[in-house]
Amino acid sequence: MSVVIDNSNGNFLSQVDLLRELIDAEGDAELNEWRYLFVIHKFGLEEIVTKLNILNEEYDFLHASNPIEHIETRIKNPKKTVEKLIRQGYPVSAQSARENLHDIGGIRVVCSFVEDVYEIYEKLAGQSDLTIKEVKDYIKYPKDNGYRSLHLLIEVPVYLTDKVENVTIEVQIRTIAMDFWASLEHKLYYKKGKVVPRQVLIGLNQCADLAALLDEKMQDIRNKMNPYLSEEERAEQAANMARNNGMELVQVPEVQE
Q1: Helix, strand or coil, per DSSP, at residue 195
Q2: Which CATH superfamily is domain 3-245 in?
Q3: Stretch 52-70: mean pLDDT, rounded?
Q4: Is the entire prediction scored with pTM above 0.85?
């Protein structure tokens, strides 16, 4: 069974109080709006994580293999949320954050193989209470620096005591190799505001290509193992491949981070 890693700061609600000076809030009403924003995104995140956990356990108990290696979650830091609004020129308010920022609640699903990434996408897209609002396929169309991942914006209903809130959560699905590259790239220079030497960018891109080659080789080895699988395992894998090969993903222009 894969592990769910919570990267959210558990005391994010207390951090909202630190926004008082940053947003020049005069009373508690505005801060309460910010608290509500982060709480409903926490609930939305938990709704999708529950669905992923059910898939995860079903694969473990009822199927021949489990495509999910691990799941990570996080709620965006309140201060960084405000700073991003300012950086991108949006009004600074909880309503503005909800309308313009789609990464307040984030989930990362790490899979074993590239085919598994699209299988998990298919399982989420097939759930009637989830709406796939946006798909960015950086696996088929990598970023210039070599970054690869499948990004989804998923709208999920959150049932509160007196109403239903539709909340958008960002879900990233990638392989172990993609996650390894992205994690190290992030540590090296992401959002540090420094000029990155061209040779470093070239080196990162080359490493991304090597990671993609590793994914391709591992997928090839997996395919060559098919004759040694049980009839049930071969049938399940063939069905997944057929679905993935016929899948059309909508490409959406990249939005500046």
Answers
A1: coil
A2: Beta Polymerase, domain 2 (3.30.460.10)
A3: 89
A4: no
